[in-house]
Amino acid sequence: MTATIKQIADELGISASTVSRALTGFAYVSENTRKKVLEKAEELDYSPNMWAQNLVGSQSNIIGCLVLELSNPFYIPMVRAIEDVTGKNELITFITETRRDLQTEKYMIERFKRVRASGVILTPVLSDLSHLKDLEKMGIPIVVVGRTVNELDSINIDNIESGKLAATHLIEKGFRRFGFIQSGDLYNHPEQERLQGFRNELLSHGLKLNTIYTVGNNHINGGEKAGELWINDKNRPEAIFCSNDMLAMGFIQSMVRIGIDIPGDVAVLGHDDTPFTDNFIVPISTIAFPKYEMGKMAIRLLLKRINLESNQHTPALFSLEPSLVERRSTDKRI
Known about the structure:
Elements: H1 5-12, H2 16-23, H3 31-43, E1 62-67, H4 75-88, E2 92-97, H5 102-114, E3 119-122, H6 130-137, E4 142-145, E5 153-157, H7 159-172, E6 178-182, H8 189-204, E7 209-214, H9 220-231, E8 239-242, H10 245-257, E9 267-271, E10 285-288, H11 291-307, E11 317-320, E12 323-325
Parallel strand pairs: 1-2, 1-3, 3-4, 4-5, 5-11, 6-7, 6-8, 8-9, 9-10
Antiparallel strand pairs: 10-12
Helix pairs in contact: 1-2, 1-3, 2-3, 4-11, 7-8, 9-10
């Protein structure tokens, strides 16, 4: 009778997934463990079944990558970093999106289970975490990016500091009436933290946030809706901080279309330093953070977790520092 991965695992007292990774040449298996597995496989006359390695009890060479929206260029540097690392380790990155929908997120997590993904990197919707915790209990590690989940490994940025940087920049430019554009999503914690930091920094200078425009989404058309609200506002802010660059793009686009000068009539500051903001119709000042580095940290941490023979560990929580990128959309008015 042909030996199985489970038999090798039982003989060595390690997990079947560790045996599978050692036999398939996975880079993140210790040389000592790999040597023991190969010796035991030879002793038991093990013959690999590549199909069986993807079934229950083992893992595939697939890394799941689940983002909120593939249409948002924000994710380009992060995904590129993940693919750069997985490619060097002969792994396949399965990239898909949730479109900010919880049921879609749950469906995709179920698909990752079915293909026995080695691990998952994702930006979660956050309204429910039970399916993510269940995935970890199954031995499939998760790294969260762009959000902080205390129970899971997370890599995020200091969003409160982002808000403070935004307020400081606009105050230094001489503006005194301020607005904020947000989606209003109850589970968009980064947005809420940016607003908190922005408002607190204004208050520390004896200033206030005059207006919050809530537009219901994080897309360009949401920014255009904010433009309509600004036009009809009797106490128009003279400087706007947008919770992300897509909203900033939509707002600027709607202003330029009707002849409103940016930044002469209203200054606009975005967040994320999304690709193309520097070449937009009005180059956009924004709060930046190292998105490529975030992706690289995420995949390296995930590979480290995959290599653990036990999934018991204290979640690692990382916070990256934001920085200001100044462009024409907040130039001081003459």
